[in-house]
Specification:
Layout lengths: L1 H14 L3 E4 L11 E4 L5 E10 L4 E2 L4 E2 L20 H20 L8 E7 L19 E7 L1 H7 L4 H10 L10 E7 L10 H4 L3 E2 L7
Parallel strand pairs: 3-6, 6-7, 8-9
Antiparallel strand pairs: 1-2, 2-3, 4-5, 7-8
Length: about 210
């Protein structure tokens, strides 16, 4: 599943007309997953992809809080604490990989780092994560499906929405889509996200003025 999400992120960059070079399979030392360049071949971004499968571990029940944990469904209502450790650790690991790359490739020292996350339903605590984080991470990416389609659907009245849900009628709705959602580091990031890429993303809350 982690490998599949890496492929989704790579495809999304290519859909936005960026070229993508895989880095983590070429050298023995740690590397971010991708180097993303513009059409002229100029490096724009480094990207590390992280997948978080579990929102925690319920010791009293002996199960992980995850959609992948079949035993979880036998316990009915349960309570789980918000734990931001995994997000923090993923960002720290991405910074470590970037540092190893830059130590060997000095020409990439000014290329900003983004960390692309995929979360299990029960592990998605990004909403609670501080918007000021490690200055070596320029931003966090997630992928949101069908934003334009959902927005268009919500413009219909209740009766029309119910009719379309009942019949599966989709005429007049935008096609299925996937968009990068960018959470920019509100700390003074060492490298800023290039404007050309930022404008191709949805920003947090889908407010392009953020």
């Amino acid at each position: 599943m982690a490998t599949a999400y890496e492929a989704v992120v790579e495809k999304r960059f290519k859909k936005l007309r960026f070229s993508v070079q895989r880095l983590d399979r070429q050298k023995p030392r740690s590397r971010p997953d991708f180097l993303v360049s513009n059409s002229s071949g100029r490096p724009q971004l480094l990207c590390e992809v992280k997948t978080v499968f579990s929102g925690g571990y319920l010791r009293e029940k002996g199960v992980h809080v995850s959609m992948l944990e079949e035993k979880l469904w036998n316990f009915g209502v349960f309570q789980n604490e918000i734990d931001l450790t995994k997000i923090h650790d993923c960002l720290a690991d991405a910074v470590r990989k970037r540092a190893a790359l830059v130590a060997d490739e000095k020409s990439l020292k000014d290329v900003p780092l983004l960390v692309a996350f995929a979360f299990d339903f029960f592990a998605d605590f990004l909403h609670f994560y501080p918007r000021t984080f490690n200055a070596d991470v320029s931003g966090i990416l997630t992928i949101e499906k069908d934003v334009a389609r959902v927005n268009a659907f919500q413009q219909f009245g209740i009766e029309e929405q119910e009719r379309r849900l009942r019949t599966g009628f989709t005429r007049g709705l935008p096609p299925n889509s996937k968009d990068f959602v960018l959470v920019r580091n509100k700390n003074k990031a060492a490298q800023r996200v290039p404007k050309d890429f930022r404008l191709r993303c949805l920003t947090e809350g889908y407010d392009e003025s953020m």
